[in-house]
Amino acid sequence: MKKIEAIIRPEDLDRVRISLQEKGLVGMTVQEVQGRGRQKGVCLQWRAGEYCIEFLPKIKVEMILDDNDVETAIEQIIKVARTGKNGDGKIFIFPVENVVRVSSGERGKEAI
Amino acid sequence: MKKIEAIIRPEDLDRVRISLQEKGLVGMTVQEVQGRGRQKGVCLQWRAGEYCIEFLPKIKVEMILDDNDVETAIEQIIKVARTGKNGDGKIFIFPVENVVRVSSGERGKEAI
Amino acid sequence: MKKIEAIIRPEDLDRVRISLQEKGLVGMTVQEVQGRGRQKGVCLQWRAGEYCIEFLPKIKVEMILDDNDVETAIEQIIKVARTGKNGDGKIFIFPVENVVRVSSGERGKEAI
Amino acid sequence: MNIKKSIYWSVIMVLLLLSVPAMAADTPKVDSGDTAWVLASAALVMIMTPALGLFYGGMVRKKNALSTIMFSFAILALIGVQWVLYGYSLAFGPDVWHIIGNLNWLGLNGVGQTPNTDYAATIPALAYMIFQAMFAIITVALISGAFVERIKFKAFMVFSLLWATLVYDPIAHWVWGTGGWLRNMGALDFAGGTVVHISSGVSALAIAFVIGQRKGFGKHAMEPHNIPMVILGAALLWFGWFGFNGGSAVASNGLASSAFVVTNTAAAAAALTWILLSSYHKRPSVLGAATGGVVGLVAITPASGFVTPMAAIVIGAVGAIISYYAMLFRGKQNVDDSLDVWACHGLGGTWGAIATGLFATTLVNSAGANGLFYGNPGQLVTQLIAVGVTWIYAFVMTVILAKIIDATIGLRVEDEEESVGLDISQHAEKAYA
Amino acid sequence: MNIKKSIYWSVIMVLLLLSVPAMAADTPKVDSGDTAWVLASAALVMIMTPALGLFYGGMVRKKNALSTIMFSFAILALIGVQWVLYGYSLAFGPDVWHIIGNLNWLGLNGVGQTPNTDYAATIPALAYMIFQAMFAIITVALISGAFVERIKFKAFMVFSLLWATLVYDPIAHWVWGTGGWLRNMGALDFAGGTVVHISSGVSALAIAFVIGQRKGFGKHAMEPHNIPMVILGAALLWFGWFGFNGGSAVASNGLASSAFVVTNTAAAAAALTWILLSSYHKRPSVLGAATGGVVGLVAITPASGFVTPMAAIVIGAVGAIISYYAMLFRGKQNVDDSLDVWACHGLGGTWGAIATGLFATTLVNSAGANGLFYGNPGQLVTQLIAVGVTWIYAFVMTVILAKIIDATIGLRVEDEEESVGLDISQHAEKAYA
Amino acid sequence: MNIKKSIYWSVIMVLLLLSVPAMAADTPKVDSGDTAWVLASAALVMIMTPALGLFYGGMVRKKNALSTIMFSFAILALIGVQWVLYGYSLAFGPDVWHIIGNLNWLGLNGVGQTPNTDYAATIPALAYMIFQAMFAIITVALISGAFVERIKFKAFMVFSLLWATLVYDPIAHWVWGTGGWLRNMGALDFAGGTVVHISSGVSALAIAFVIGQRKGFGKHAMEPHNIPMVILGAALLWFGWFGFNGGSAVASNGLASSAFVVTNTAAAAAALTWILLSSYHKRPSVLGAATGGVVGLVAITPASGFVTPMAAIVIGAVGAIISYYAMLFRGKQNVDDSLDVWACHGLGGTWGAIATGLFATTLVNSAGANGLFYGNPGQLVTQLIAVGVTWIYAFVMTVILAKIIDATIGLRVEDEEESVGLDISQHAEKAYA
Ligand SMILES: Nc1ncnc2c1ncn2[C@@H]1O[C@H](COP(=O)(O)OP(=O)(O)O)[C@@H](O)[C@H]1O
Ligand SMILES: Nc1ncnc2c1ncn2[C@@H]1O[C@H](COP(=O)(O)OP(=O)(O)O)[C@@H](O)[C@H]1O
Ligand SMILES: Nc1ncnc2c1ncn2[C@@H]1O[C@H](COP(=O)(O)OP(=O)(O)O)[C@@H](O)[C@H]1O
């Protein structure tokens, strides 16, 4: 089992969700985060003049997946979220030791 | 050392916190997330008619634990959060390489 | 590659960001979290009297780093965030299996 | 002779001439300035009800924000219709046995564009009616602070309708209706210390007993989710209260100005007192300043047409002290009058009604009376009777109504609905995306 | 003889005396009470426009919150200047062929501190002008509900200026201007059923057709990001509407009071109806209660100076039912009139204008007319003509204007800008940090 | 003969008859319409102070939101009491050496329900007093924009009380008090260009110098945390300003209407100008539109009773340009007048006072004077003197007061408290859960 964390643009969330669902990947946890990377921050307006912020709003999508599904998930996300420009985001893959489903107590793959 | 990430119902947070505290597990980091899994989304009302959202509000509880405490934590969470219905949530267990306490610079178990 | 998650005081974020940037560590994802640990909660005022909350607002900074940069990052964070008091926060280090850059499809170190 | 005759005829002509306005004075004439002020006041009192929704809504947890705001908004709708259909007639219609109005004015039958001199000689009867409508509305809404975060919406609506009909309308008649027995007794209540604040505040306590505590009450912190919203609500309440008290002069004159002045003064004094009390106990509280302002407004309400600005400072400051410690006291009991309607309105109104019996002076309002400090202890006794009667009637009736509803449709949501929050469970809505 | 003479001279003296007020009546005199009410009403109507911004702003997604609020605020600025420069002259200036005012009052030339008896005999002409300014402003702002979340800000400003000039100003002249042809025909529109609500509601539908749907419309949920903000907006709209309708009496009298009363009553009845409808279909809706209140206010607007409170209940309730099902219907079509301006204002205004033809009675307003239910079917026909004309003119003109703008500067933002949200892409600002 | 006699007697009778109102005119009589408008105006000005709290509060960081809102709310309480106790007497009481009122009116002694013809002949003295109270309150609150996010709450309260007493009350007396020396000189200030805006704006600059910059000023972005809240605040300010300027006619007449009209017009023109300026430099700004509106309101304030609507457009637009570039300039200096009170109010008020000397015309207000453009350059000189005096007095006094407080109880919170935010550190509260 792996965990992937995909940092995407907020406006892509709906389409990412749908493209993953098409492959049967439903379970996920998302949250709003602030990110910074190669994509520069943005300069917003003050009453007169402007100020620049260093972080941009992003969405983090977390999924715990069976090892076999990892590549599918990555593909689906890239398909939807890639514009080729800076700020498209990143996908991080982490090891997972175990999963427990609270409602049933099941562990491991069954619990995902 | 392990990290556990428990996705629970928002209304269970207070009780989960207390039940963990009873076993001496105090340190934790929580955040509001949006989740989806076997539990279906919810249909809310628009001015007339309704719209359905795919994500439900959940709480993510993160704890870095000594290996020995992992099972205790899982048990305590399950005890409180289980209703047996879809949406009770999941607990994910991850490996941790190290921990540093900022205030003292301590590392490893002492730092938890 | 490693992931570090640093839990810091909200007011330290700007200075932490700058101190990491000085060492060329730019990419990061941050989010607001609620934490609890050795630092006690805080008692706030109700209309008359007070109520105490168990969680304090914290910032979680996540960085995926090349193994070589981990120590630098830890140092820089400690330099800025340490007051020596409870609540300075913690840094957790996790293993990372892979990284994918969405825009280019690059994987591994190049993608960070 | 001629002179006499000339005088004679001149006088007659002049009298004839004068008789036109004299006759006109018999048919009451609408004064445009008085009407402007009362209509503006009615609008000001109207905004107080949604303002109350924000004031209360900011103090509950996020999952119940909409539900709490809805209590006030729904009452604006519900009592807005009830009042026009029969509420006004019950409260202000022709007297029956000094305890209730009859139903002659059903559907506002006979309530027209000319003044009803029983209530206000210089404004259209319709203007007086709608001004009073706003009082009925906010009074019912005030109670909602007691049972937030756990009442069934349907039970809330049924309770509110019954309460308005069986508690508010009679009390309003006793105190303000022509022929009402407390009015006949000489009880002074300029803008609603008994009618509005005691009735709602005491009923809040009663229904809090019946419905019971929120899950986790006294165990988990229940954080106010949006204090700026509370401040906005309090500010709009303060703003609207100028219509509440100032408009109760039902004329645009010196008395209205005096009521306006003491209203602001008492609110300011009470807010300042609460800031000081909270500084003393912990820190100068923002939520406390807003609460204090509202408590000062409550306390001055019955007295606002009878007292001087200096008395207003005392009334506001003492009101704040009473409510502050009453809240601390209530918080330690097992009663979950969640947003302290009893401490703010019940006790604030009680203190205000008593203070009227102390500070009232005919120097401010010749149509009023003197209080104890102006040599008339009898007024204080009258005030105490009015207070006592209102307490008892409101409490008993509310317990009965609440018990009946609880036994039939049920007052309270399921545990799980309460956990999830009323916004989702009662309204299938979320306050914030 | 002497007697006769005495009488004779007395009469003369008395007439002389009387002639002073008589002469005064020739030069129209400002009544301070009427002026107070109209100025207060103008302020009340002013707050409706930013309130509309909040009402709409809370219903869009967070990334478009500021942009949506800005539509209303910017119109306050834009039309605030346009009206003073030439809008008022076009709408209310000396009549040209019964279809438009001439430009004699350019820059408010000749609009002064004394009354213009054509419009309001007892208040300064400037007071009437600014009261009307607020109507022009909010009407233009109302349309913005149709194209939120996707229009170019610049295109919005250009469209609004043209629409105010070419659609609002003429229609206002037809219905309200001295010499206007619909007015001459006897069409009744007390406070703007045709002029304000049909014109904006139908234009909203038209521009929604031209600009097309939002990306993801009908596919992804588009959650209202802040419903408390919607309630606050609705509450301030309700509050301001007392000036809108009550102030349209341009005097502080029985008629103003009557208009005030039916306004509140219709709003309450409609909100209550919407609560019941939503309970029936799912749950008592908070967003629905707010929407219902607004729809009731819309529906009563044209009728507010002509109907009784009981009629107001019917008008409000039926208005709510119509709008409710119209929204359900519209939602299923491919038309993205995003915040249902057509269903709320277009249909609410249409129903209100028709209801005026049904329920109007000279018992309420002797300067009005009777409707069908009071024995005058002709009034209904007149109302239907006024409705039809306004629908057609507004729809056609808006399509033309929108197409021209689309072809030149472009109506719609780029896809990517829409995805990111208009707050960042159009204004380089974020609503919340 | 007989005829003569008849005439004679008739005339006498008629005079006798007339003498009743004539005598009545000697004892000043309250006009209900004027009173309605001034009371409504006082309510409108009252809401401006909490509105200012929201306006400012939305522009600071989340951790200081409550603290910033509290500044305004606490001033409502503090000066609400101060004014009644002695502030009104100092500012408007019987003159002492043309520089201050004496203490005869302590505790509103002698300020009653009949008019004080020195200030307003047709409204109760109490109405005038409370209208003025709202001006004193908002002026003190305005300054708070300068030191948000770093002042000690206690120091703030002490400073505010001293400033109101030693700066506001005297300046108000000079300009508006009977016998005040600037008033005697003929300085025109209809609603507070010098008294309200220059005094607060210049003092803001002064205290910003003394208290120093916020930590991180110029280094880290300090994001406005809630711009919808800013817009709401600005909208309520605009709304309330109709009372501020319109009410300053202290009557409900043509002049009040004219003031109302130019107020709206200048605000609209300024908001529009700011939208254009920001479009030119970057994008049409929402925060800018709100700011522009407020600046236009500031600029028209002193001129509002003296100028035409066309002049109002110029005054608003030029005011916006001045403030816009002043903000850019200030932002580049090391002065952290955090919310630009100086640029908005100090300079807006200065421009408005000068513009009064340019555009004033007796065609608008016969009790006023002509300005330069109407052939009276002397008025401009008078205005410049009033401006200069106010600048110097306010600046010097504020520096002295601030230094004294800094040296005694300390102006500024600890570094750590500033980092954590004032909501927690000063008030032990959090704005949002
Ligand atoms: N090293 C990193 N550690 C953690 N998060 C990162 C890292 N690099 C990038 N991110 C996250 O990914 C987002 C996109 O990264 P960015 O470099 O802007 O885009 P891209 O890689 O697509 O050009 C950032 O906003 C940040 O949230
Ligand atoms: N595969 C997954 N990856 C990440 N998060 C998941 C996954 N499956 C479930 N979750 C999280 O757990 C929550 C509960 O899951 P759900 O399937 O609804 O409940 P349950 O497993 O208790 O029946 C979801 O809302 C989501 O936040
Ligand atoms: N065991 C833990 N698991 C997860 N998060 C933790 C743990 N211990 C501490 N934290 C996080 O770190 C923050 C700081 O910890 P705390 O013990 O208060 O400070 P310190 O270790 O600096 O004295 C907490 O608020 C919490 O968010």
Name the largest protein-protein interface in this structure.
D-E, 70 and 70 residues
Number of strands of chain A: 7
Helix/strand order of chain D, N-terminal first = HHHEEHHHHHHHHHHHH
**Structural class from helices and strands of chain A?**
alpha+beta
Helix vs. strand class of chain D: mainly alpha
Shape of chain A: elongated
The side-by-side strand order for the widest beta sheet of chain D comes to 1-2
Approximate strand percentage of chain D? under 5%
Q: Which whole number gives the mean pLDDT of chain A?
A: 95
Span of the ends, CA to CA of chain D = 93 Å
Rg of chain D computed from alpha carbons, rounded to a whole number of angstroms: 23 Å
Shape of chain D: globular
What is the radius of gyration of chain A computed over CA atoms, rounded to a whole number of angstroms? 17 Å
The largest sheet of chain D is: 2 strands, antiparallel
Uncertain runs of chain D: 14-25
Percent of residues in helices of chain A comes to 10-25%
Short summary of the structure?
Chain A is α+β, with helices and mostly antiparallel strands and 112 residues long. Helices cover 20% and strands 39% of the residues of chain A. In chain A, β3 and β4 form a beta hairpin.
How would you describe this protein?
The complex is a heterohexamer, with 3 copies of chain A (112 residues) and 3 copies of chain D (433 residues). Chain A is an alpha+beta fold. Chain A has 2 helices and 7 strands, in the order βαββββαββ. In chain A, the strands form 2 sheets. In chain A, strands 2-5-1-6 form a 4-stranded antiparallel beta sheet, covered by helices on one side. A two-stranded antiparallel sheet of chain A has the order 3-4. In chain A, a hairpin with a 4-residue loop joins strand 3 (42-45) and strand 4. The longest helix of chain A is centred in the C-terminal third of the chain and has 12 residues, at 70-81. Chain A is elongated and about 60 Å long. In chain A, 46% of the residues are buried. The longest helix of chain D has 31 residues, at 377-407. Chain D has 433 residues and is mainly α. The complex binds adenosine-5'-diphosphate (3 copies).
